[in-house]
Design brief:
There is one protein chain. By secondary structure, the protein is of the alpha+beta class. The protein is 19% helix and 24% strand. It has a domain of 152 residues. It is built from four helices and nine strands. A hairpin with a 2-residue loop joins strand 2 and strand 3. The relative contact order is 0.14. This is FAM3 metabolism regulating signaling molecule A. Belongs to the FAM3 family. Keywords: Disulfide bond, Lectin, Secreted, Signal.
Length: 229
Amino acid sequence: MRLTGPMRAVAVLLMVGLVWLLVNNFFGGESVHVLSFLGGSSEQPTPGEPRPRKYKCGLSAPCPPKHLAFRLVSGAANVIAPKVCLEDQMIMSSVKNNVGRGLNIALVNGVTGDLLEARTFDMWAGDVTELLKFLRPLHEGTLVFVASFDDAATKMNDESRRLFEELGSTAVKELAFRDSWVFVGAKGIENKSPFEQRMKNSKNSNKYEGWPESLEMDGCIPLRPPLDH
């Protein structure tokens, strides 16, 4: 039997209503846009309104030539892992399975921008000797990207703090239990690094129970000219 115009409209409305009920029940009562679920769009962009453009690593503006775009995100509490993005490539993340509790460090060639090594150091139950062996032999011009996760300070000793200070850190001397920390330094830097943030662990201001909020930092780092031989 073929449906007439009014009957067909009623049938379409009944079908949409049934789909909404099924989708709503499937997603546990969460609000779901039926048009989006059916392949349509429930929101149309305003005509003539440009969408904000994102550049490498989500920066709001492009980096100048011979600069590296980066974004560092520290871990959130002991749940959400940190991220390190360089030149639009995620070089450290939970997806890459190369991050962990403590300090997450990526070494980058300061002339070419190539990733040299990425490692994590457990600063709660690990051995600080491993961190010292990693930092001591760095070559001149090596860029060092650091993002904390959970606790980055318990196993810190005087030498490890001094090594980070030599890379340009000013916050590491005060870094304490469960502080959030993101930092970019370089071997042989003459001044203190402009790329560093620290959020103190304080029960009066913590965003999470027992932990401060996650830190996010991005920017552009100039590449070094090749060293003369």
